[in-house]
């Protein structure tokens, strides 16, 4: 599967905190930056954090949750579909770092079309992130 890279931008309350999380914990390489934004390479995609000092009273992005496979999935969220090895490596790194998951790493829709490994966690500003993987991405990504 050959995919064109996407671009997404999210608000953050503090650039140093975002740099520690995205560059440090997640290991994304930093591209261009300015006093109000930072570009990151998120597995080949352009992920940008923009400073927004007027986030909610708690400094977090407001979310709602929708029920999927017995879990409250935070909305909005974004992330990347990884290989199973990349997904497991990331899950292990996050567990070792003590990251609190919104939805712990697990296999969703086991034995059904679209079976996938998934996990959800938040950045310090409350942006929800989902990283998922499929055993056979070409057949399972858009399975119905």
UniProtKB/TrEMBL annotation:
One Pfam family recorded for the sequence:
Glyoxalase
Q: Which Gene3D superfamilies match?
A: 2,3-Dihydroxybiphenyl 1,2-Dioxygenase, domain 1
Coiled coil feature spans? none
Q: Which residues form the signal peptide?
A: none
Q: Which domain of life is it from?
A: Bacteria
* VOC domain location: 4-134
Query: Which PANTHER family does the entry mention?
Result: PTHR39434, VOC DOMAIN-CONTAINING PROTEIN
- Name of the molecule in the record: Glyoxalase
């Amino acid at each position: 599967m050959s995919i064109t890279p996407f671009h997404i931008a999210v608000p953050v309350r503090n650039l140093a905190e975002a740099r520690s999380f995205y560059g440090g914990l997640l290991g994304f390489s930093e591209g261009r930056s300015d006093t109000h934004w930072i570009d990151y390479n998120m597995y080949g995609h352009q992920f940008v954090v923009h400073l927004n000092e007027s986030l909610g009273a708690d400094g977090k992005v407001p979310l709602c949750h929708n029920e999927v496979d017995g879990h409250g999935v935070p909305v909005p969220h974004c992330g990347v579909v990884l290989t199973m090895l990349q997904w497991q490596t990331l899950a292990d790194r996050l567990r070792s770092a003590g990251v609190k998951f919104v939805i712990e790493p697990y296999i969703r829709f086991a034995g059904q079309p679209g079976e996938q490994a998934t996990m959800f966690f938040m950045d310090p500003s409350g942006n929800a992130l989902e990283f998922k993987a499929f055993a056979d991405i070409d057949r399972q990504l858009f399975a119905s």
